[in-house]
Amino acid sequence: MSYDDSMLDIYFFENQKLLEKLENLMLCGEKGSVLSSSDIDEVFRIMHTIKGASSMMSFDNLFHVTHSVEDLFSLIRENGGDCPDWSDIFDIVLETIDFVKNEFAKIQNGQANDGDPQWLIDKIEEHLKFMNRKEEAPRTSCAPRTSEEPAPCTSDTDALQHPCYKIKLAFEPDCKMEHIRAVGIANALNKLCSKIMHIPENLDAETACSDIAENGFTAFVRTMENPDSIKQLINEELFIKSFSVIPIDNDNEELPESMRAPKLPAAAKSSARSEASQSSPEIITKQNFISVNVNKLDSLMDLVGELVTTESMVTRSPDLAGLHLNNFETAARQLQSLTSELQGIVMSIRMLPVSTIFFKMQRIARDTSKKVKKNINLVLVGEETEVDKNIIDSLSDPLMHLIRNAIDHGIESPEERIKKGKPEQGQIKLEAKNTGEDVMIVVSDDGKGLDYKQIIKKAKEKGLITKSGSEISEKEAFSYIFMPGFSTKSEVTEFSGRGVGMDVVRKGIEKLGGTISVDSAVDEGTTISIRIPLTLAIVDGMQLTVGPLIFIAPMISIRESFVPDIKNVFYDPDGNERIMIRGECYSIVRLHNFFGIEDAKKEMAEGILIMIDSDINTFCILVDKIIGEQQVVVKPLPEYIQKKAANLNGLSGCTILGDGKISLILNVNNLRSASA
């Protein structure tokens, strides 16, 4: 079958969301060792939807494996939610999710989805045979339900007395797979309603897709639920252009024959109609969100950045110096206000909650803890915190390494923990929180912690440092775990011991313009704190001058600035320039030396020192003067500069100022090498 890119994009977008939801269901269910009836229904619905979509796209292997899981949960539903071994069921579904994800990756990379799911299908069939052999206990009433499950079972006669509603909805044009979407909505409604009929009646028919695309999807339902619940349910579905929920009479001719209730006396009929109209007037709603290709958002962000820069160039033009133009200044203020508001809206569109990667860490923690045979509880805090989508994408790998390292290396074995008087189950907390214009992400565990003396010993053995132990503080020693090739593990395992994981973390955070720090205590645990900007596109910085050049230092890295007291400046035995501040010793980096700038202030007393926090240490940079704070749009350095310049280690990009001048943005983490 041939299909265009738009159909593939929709297929992946929707089904990847479903897989994420399914994975979370499995991980939550595994903690309680059981799935509720509503969760079982949801798993069945998800598998049915993915199966139907895969069949339409002719992805046969995905169709067959999801069909098998659908059969499995169909039997579990028929058995009233009873299952002989939930642990195996969770493993099977998670393995299926992994298989489907791998096939998705192949298709997206232009490869054939040629994975053979037969081993999974065989495993599922074995469970089906085992469950079918068990004698089914007689069930004379509905299965026990929780507060989240649909209303208790009722007879057909009782159901026909429930209020009746007509639901009419239309999908967005060219959204594709309308009949599959209708199946999902019908299954979801079925959980709220005592009786349901829909048009088209057969959603598997060949003409169902085109019929719904042309005429919409209509459902007649009877339910005791508040109609607001129906609205909320439909609002959660994707690609719905509009829908209406209308109460109708029991004997309305539009109703299918099987949905009509016995006629009521006139007085009762009037009362029922009045009650229905008061509780749920006719509602016509339009869905208030759409999906947008992220490349379009990137282009929009670039254009807004250009607009902000151009607005600044116009309003701060040197040609206007000394002129007092009241009308122009009023218009300029209005333009500045509008561009600022537009910039904020575009940034907010790109913001996503960190829950999109936090929930993935649950699976990482689950699989890793099983392989290393440790009992781990991963606690998520602040997953609703929002950051730019590009940062979300880049955070996944560093967090994965930190979680795996905490489980394999930080948390003790159950036997060790019991000997130390700790709970057998180790705890890892993954937390996100806003701190002004930045986001702090903290990964902490209650494991064995880091021994800084042991770290210094290992670093010396590997030739990574030459300082004596007395010269190294605890904070600096802890930072050595991020060095390439460093590991305190004597054995190499699947997850650690090669000395590359934490180095990957540091480099990943550096690319985001963030900082990372470690705090630890022996037998109490380790806390790793990551501070990152909300967005990579715009930076809050401090404008500095060194000679004729203007630099931007990210505000996230600046601790303080001051005029140096020459009496506190000295050189250590290795010839490094340092300064003593409040009993602490800090290295000094002269930016004019680092970048080779001739026409700059050379005397310490004539310049200003700015204290900088990098991810490993704190040091000071010497500049000529400070201009002030400035929010700037980050741009990559031009290619010709990247090719010709000998040293760009201390730069992360550039920006265009209001007067048209180019300012260079400092990469403080790469300046630290000069402060060692």
Description:
This protein is an alpha+beta fold and 676 residues long. The protein contains 21 helices and 23 strands. The strands form 5 sheets. Strands 15-19-20-18-17-16 form a 6-stranded mixed sheet. α3 (60-78) packs antiparallel against α4 (86-108), α7 crosses α8 and α11 (294-315) packs antiparallel against α12 (326-349). The longest helix has 28 residues, at 5-32. The radius of gyration is 32 Å and the shape is globular.
In short:
Helix content is 42%, strand content 21%. The protein is an alpha+beta fold and 676 residues long.
Number of helices: 21
Largest sheet: 6 strands, mixed
**Arithmetic mean pLDDT:** 80
Strand content: 15-25%
| Radius of gyration, taken over Cα atoms and rounded to an integer in Å | 32 Å
Weakly predicted, low-confidence segments:
135-154, 266-270, 272-284
Using DSSP, what is the number of strands? 23
Q: Going across the major beta sheet, what is the strand order?
A: 15-19-20-18-17-16
The gross shape turns out to be: globular
What class do helices, strands and sheet pairing give?
alpha+beta
Q: Work out the helicity level.
A: 40-55%
Separation of the first and last Cα atoms: 62 Å
Topology overview:
Layout: H1 5-32, H2 37-56, H3 60-78, H4 86-108, H5 118-133, H6 156-159, E1 164-171, H7 178-190, E2 195-199, H8 208-215, E3 217-222, H9 227-235, E4 240-248, H10 266-279, E5 283-286, H11 294-315, H12 326-349, E6 351-353, H13 355-371, E7 376-381, E8 386-388, H14 389-410, H15 414-419, E9 426-435, E10 438-445, H16 452-461, H17 474-479, H18 501-511, E11 515-521, E12 525-533, E13 538-546, E14 549-554, E15 558-562, E16 569-571, E17 577-581, E18 584-590, H19 591-594, E19 608-613, E20 618-623, E21 625-633, H20 639-644, E22 651-656, E23 662-666, H21 668-671
Parallel strand pairs: 7-9, 14-23, 18-20
Antiparallel strand pairs: 1-3, 1-4, 2-3, 4-5, 6-8, 9-10, 10-12, 11-12, 13-14, 13-21, 15-19, 16-17, 17-18, 19-20, 22-23
